[in-house]
Here is the input.
Amino acid sequence: MDRGKRNFLKIAGLTGAGAYVGFVGAEAIGNKPGKAKKKLALVIDTRKCKGDCPDCIAACHREHNVPEEHNPNFKGPPVRSSQGIKWIWLSTFGGAFHEQVNEHTGRRKDPLVVLCNHCDNPPCTRVCPTKATWKRESDGIVTIDMHRCIGCRFCMAACPYGSRSFNFHDPRKNLKAVRPGFPTRTIGVVEKCNFCAERLGEGLLPACVEACTKKAMSFGDLKDKDSPASVALRSAYAITRKPALGTGPEVYYIL
Amino acid sequence: MLEKALTGSKGYFAWIFALLVVIGVGFGTYLYQLNEGLGITGLNRDVSWGLYIAQFTFLVGVAASAVMVVLPYYLHDYKEFGKLTLLGEFLAIPACLMCMLFIVVDMGRPDRVVYVFLHPTPNSIMFWDTVVLSGYLGLNLVIGWTTLSAESKGVAPPRWVKPLIYLSIPWAVSIHTVTAFLYQGLPGRGFWMTAIMAPRFLASAFAAGPSFLILMVLLVRRFTRFDPGDVALRKLGQIVTYAMFVSVFFFLMEVFTVFYSAIPEHKHHFWYLFVGGPWWLVGAMWLFVALAVIGLVILVNPRTRNNIPTLAVGAACVFVASWLEKGLGLVIGGFTPNPFGKYTVYTPTLPEVTIAVAIWCIGFLILTVLYKIATGVKQERAIG
Here is the structure.
């Protein structure tokens, strides 16, 4: 290679690198999250919800085309439940609040509905290397762009609530029926509860809240004092999961 | 210089061929994984990173450890390491490449890998890890290749390489620090929530990397006429000894903090690894303890450390012990128990292990070719 070419390559390389550093800097400055205008929250009254009916789970999974673990229509081997997809599911008091429960605690083994907490300060969005997941400024929903997700699963390591699922298998194979109104997903991306952002846009309540026949779920904006969630929280003592971590969960449990 | 890799003994080509066969099998398995998804691995909702990311973490350390030969030679003018530095730098290159491959095979959508650069996210440690790792690979490629081609021409390396070499020293520290930050900044993962994670990573890397280099030098010496000398090997043995003591010391500090404070969220991970886990994991963790102790006994005794065959045994103990701790226990232990206090057993599957072994073979292939070129050039200079 003669000297001219070599110098050209050097200058081109340095210019490219410099431009890229500028690009990263601009991305960093332009990406400061603002304060959420709304603070959407879900309040679950565990005095009413005994976790004995799967209504909210069935409604959510139907709404969002969440694949079943054991689909009778699927010819291949069943998906191991540890590799399944969960948006809203049943844990127990002893599981969800395991750091404050011991063998003498009542209701320890009772089922408890859990889902993404849509934290005020979510660690999952902080770690994402492609900005594929973020907290929406308009209402505080923690959402995912499933076309942007590279499937590195850093967000799953960062979530202290185990709320994120990964598509270990082709989710379309395990769907009994596809609801056309919501996109199905592909292998290799992360997904989770989206607080029914698509329904809220149409003025509807989240599917789980609507499906709950026990009226155990109250949903709304905590910045609005008259929202059902605010009213429910004022009426009784409620706790959140792992408050000491500073994530600010927006799913509350009335005891 | 590349032509030096194209000539060699029957044994050389047999080795290359054997590696290529394993790589081929691994590549086929990877195509299967691409098609079926990561469901073919033992990974799951609870243990969402496993063998792949653990190998990545361990190999970042091997890559960073090149600094342990570069620093004494360039900053302290320790002449005995003159013949070793290139072997160290050339070890860092395949180590970096293996790291990248392990990240790619762990990704759910490897077709989108370029998004990391198209949508740079400075608040994500993963972004910085990509930056420092590719930078470190570039540095070692440029430095290694330039010094070697200068040597083959019998001239001094160009002056502009020196600043790059000095830059590579803190850069090596940065790659393993940033890798530790991937783990230690996550709320709710008690096993990783420790400020000495990065120092621990560096200490175990500076033990594992140079012990691997000792073993590689012994192989190079057996198969070529290139010999960095016993003095250099013994000095490497000393470095491994100090680093391994620091590494074990740091580990014991973790054990004290966790068990004296008796905080369950921190304790349960250790319990799972050393008592409650599946037999192969518990066995591996106690093997780590045994090998660390045996390695240290061999290395701390000057007679066994300075005797090359026993030094090799000690180095092998340290390397395997570090791999068991970091390439196996660190990731699995951190994810078990899960955020609900439940224990989900992760068992790597055969396809997963095949892909991991094949990536190691790609590393060995690159290492073999680079060492073949390096020793070829160096022998020529020594004769001519």
Chain B has a mean pLDDT of 94.
